[in-house]
Amino acid sequence: MTAAPSAILLDLVERRARRRGGRAGRHITLIAGIAILGIVAAASLAAPLITHYNPDTLDPLRPLAPPFSSGHILGTDEFGRDIFARILYGGRIDLLIAFGATGVTLVAGTAIGLVSGYFGGWVDAVLMRIVDLFFAFPFFVLVIAIVAMLGPSIFNMFVAIWLTSWISYARITRGHTIILKGREYVLAAKALGYRHHRVMLRHILPNVVSFVLIFAMVDAVGNVLLGAALGFLGLGAKPPSPEWGAMISDGQNYILSSWWLSTLPGLAIVVVGVGFSLLGDGLADLLRVGD
Q1: Of residues 43 and 221, which shows the higher confidence score?
Q2: Is 111 exposed, middle or buried (0-12, 13-18, 19+ CB in 10 A)?
């Protein structure tokens, strides 16, 4: 008779331990993503404290110095510019693309999708036809066309991303809003006479924002790669800006003899991409979107 309570107590302890282990596992992914992005952001912002080299300073006496050369831990490029300094300062541009471009499209696309899905009717029809119009063109080709028309620069690249990337957020938000506006708590809020903006912002948006935030992490990685691709094509940051994609483009002619010119900026892009991917996975587990 005394063994049964002990077995029950032991089973409860084991279940609680498994729950804690599961939560810890989910948090590890989230913490790892935050840590990676935090380290990259801190290193980029503190670049003047980490290295005394200016990313644009030329040194004709030491071109193409290999990594771990005296005074240049990651070597120099064809103009003698320090690669480590250029990667650190270039992180400011690429992280700005990730957070700045993604943040604007997230807010704008979510707002449009929320309005479209909530009101329906002709409002939804007009907004969705605009979305369909953008989806009719290949995304990357459309971005290149906009940047080429406006002229190559970082700001024009931002404009191109803002004009094209909001449509995915709008479609995601609209789909979930259409489902949620038929739920009992939303119908009750309407029956109580709450204004439309209160119903949307306080009863629907909190249940949609988790899906949008997780997609934003994926989109941020895509925007970093897009910025690097435009920089590689000469449509992004103008020389001598230390943007990672432009650095890869500059080093392609030396890939066999001076591999570090393109490889090291490419690794920086990979690290940022892994950070955002881990952050997105951690958020998905934390918010239990799939449950």
Answers
A1: 43
A2: middle
**Residue 172, pLDDT score:** 93
Residue 93 half-sphere exposure, CB side, CA atoms within 13 Å?
31
What is the per-residue pLDDT across 81-133, written as a single tens digit (0 to 9) for each?
999 999 999 999 999 988 988 999 999 999 999 999 999 899 999 999 999 88
Helix (H, G, I), strand (E, B) or coil at 243: coil
Q: Half-sphere exposure of 50 toward its Cβ, with a 13 Å CA cutoff?
A: 19
pLDDT digits (tens, 9 = 90+) for 149-166: 988 888 898 999 999 999
**In whole angstroms, what is the distance from residue 277 CA to residue 217 CA?**
7
Please state, in angstroms and rounded to a whole number, the distance separating the CA atoms of residues 114 and 203. 12
Residue 33 neighbours by CB distance under 10 Å = 21
Distance in angstroms (rounded) separating the CA atoms of residues 156 and 154: 6
CB 267 within 8 A of CB 255: no
Question: Rounded to the nearest 5°, which phi and psi values hold at 154?
Answer: -65, -45
pLDDT of residue 191: 87
Cis preceding-peptide flag for 240 (omega within 30 of 0)? yes
Q: Which two tokens stand for residue 5?
A: 């309570």
Angstrom distances, CA of residue 13 to CA of 6, 7, 21, 221, 254: 11, 10, 12, 41, 61
**Angle in degrees, CA 236, 265, 48, rounded to 5:** 90
The Cα–Cα gap between 9 and 33 comes to 37
Domains of the chain by range and CATH? Answer: 33-287 (1.10.3720.10)
- At 63, give phi and psi (nearest 5°): -80, 145
- Residue 112 pLDDT: 94
